[in-house]
Sequence to fold (339 residues):
Amino acid sequence: MVTLAEVARHAGVSASTVSYVLSGKRSISAVTRQRVRDSIEHLGYHPHAGARALASSRSRVIALMVPLRTDMYVPVMMEIAIAVATTARVHGYDVLLLTGEEGPAAVQRVTGSGLAEAMILMDIQLDDERLPLLRGGGQPAVLVGLPADPSGLTCVDLDFTATGALCADHLAELGHRELAVIGEAPGVYERHTGFAERTLAGLRDRAARHGISVLHRPCGGGYGSLVGTLGRIFDERPGTTGFAVQNEAVVEPLLALLRQDGRAVPEDVSVVAVCPEQVATQASVRLTSVAVPAQELGRRAVELLMAKLRSRPGEEVVLLPPELTVRDSSGWAPDVNCR
Fold:
């Protein structure tokens, strides 16, 4: 492995000069700086991460907290995580991935160890137990999600309240008067996870303004869970003609069960989903949907964190506006004549 001393000999400078070029702690002439960089590239020198961290008090590592729960749709979370990792590398940072459900203990471990100089947290609950540590600590952090009280925090998220409202508006414009929301697994609501709670609140509020009734039923992933959930919906509200789905795992089972029940989509029943674009476009009936911008969320989170590391003061909340794309799964309610 090439050493710093070998780089110095190749460039014809002292080892301390090479160190100053790498750290930027002292002003080095442009000619000397370029000669050192040419030697680094020619020899393939890579600074030792541990030594670099000790010398600069910076680890160049971001801790990414992604609790991988069985009741969450993991592909979306991992897409955000990949976007975080690739954007971080552009800025010269590596990512330490923490997937356990440890809550405040994980925050304390990261801040106490010095392994990471900043944090990005996902799976944010409305009253998340990790928030007091983030507000009281000195380590920069960004949330991918929005708690009930974002004061003193930096957050980025899709505007899920507006997302729910957008779904209700679309179905109302098509004449649907009875809607059912097939939501995430029950545990997601029991934890008061922000994105699910906000979507439901936005949809209910907008539906009420339209004079539309809404029935919300959480649902576990997969066909078996949906059979019981869908049966209960039609037992309680047989006139339901509009569905809003925020549960990627039940999208295709729902379309299949509606077909089995003799309900055509969209002639008899309309379906609107909050899901990744790929899920919407590859369904057996192409879904009218609001896309979850996973890659953009990951990228924005890193950019916000870089700004904090540059000591930009103040809190910031960035909510990405939702966009609804109309496809084949939504149409006029069956009793509406203005088709």
Observations:
- The longest strand covers residues 178-183.
- The two ends are 72 Å apart (CA to CA).
- Residues 224 and 253 are 9 Å apart (CA to CA).
